[in-house]
# Entry
Amino acid sequence: MKMKKTAAFAAAALLCVSLFGCTIKSPATVGSIGGVEIPAGVYLLAQYNAYEQAATRVEDSKKVLTSKIKDSEQTGAEYIAEETLKFIELYAAVETRFAELGGELTEEQQATVESQTETLWTQSQKSYEKNGIGRTSLKSHVANIVKQDALLDMIYGNGGGAAVADDELAKWVEQNYLRADYLTLPIIDFTNYVMLTEDQTAKMRTLADEAAAEVNGGKSLEEIAEDTLKKASEISGSEYSANLLASSLGNTIFSPSQMSYYGEEAAAAMKGAKPGEATVVNIGSSLLVLVRQETVLTADYTIDSIRSSALSAMKSSELEEELRAQGAAAEHQLDQGAMNTYSAKKVKA
# Structure
């Protein structure tokens, strides 16, 4: 009799699906943090990103969940769960603070959200879709990042609750930024993005050192640029043009994050450069013959013109730490059943 009931139940279920379109729907959210609903797609994106991070930190990338994270006692599964929670706590805190301050994305910021979402979607659509992450969820994530950036100006900018005074910001910029004239000599073939041979790279380094010596001997970068770039073109086997001169010679400001992006050795060389003295810096794809200037701020590079980027460099870590603490302390009303439905075991790398 029991078997007959089971069979009858199964038949009824099949009839329900075939006749009435009955389906078992996945949860639309995984609950809330601080009253902010966490959409399932945002949770899945957080989990997917955490999984990708874990895969780079375990010895066996085919056993991410059960392998130990390098320099940690955590398994991959524990790491992913922790990082996913941190992600959605930060997401909730950003949404909360932005709303509390009456924030609204400007047309320019909305355009940024659209363009960055489109870029990410184009790059990784297949991976996102097979992990249940839709474009709408990706857009919510991108908008959240843009809101976090906006909070920097809302909190630390002019009129903000913790506004940074211009003289304080200027002092910080002078201590942490770098302004320099530069001449770029490529060590990669930009037509096919292949690194030059060791011999070519060595010759390019010699050329860069000779250029730096000329500048330190009294010449300007402008005076030596054309001849140096012609020699560089001969070394790389490319054709010299006036466009190359225009794109290789210039003056710019380097932020702390830009210098760090080039690697520790390059960043140390840039920070250690003496004003007025030429030095050669390897930034990976090119060699820079760099002449550091005495000051960062000028009539062209004012506090007003770089305020947003300077506040980001100065305060972004502090703000993120504060927001993470706020998110962690907020009331968590998360649905464990929903999170179990979206288990990390289902992530498709």
In short: The first strand starts at residue 29 and ends at 33. Residues 89 and 301 are 37 Å apart (CA to CA). The radius of gyration is 27 Å. Residues 1-24 have pLDDT under 50 and may be disordered.
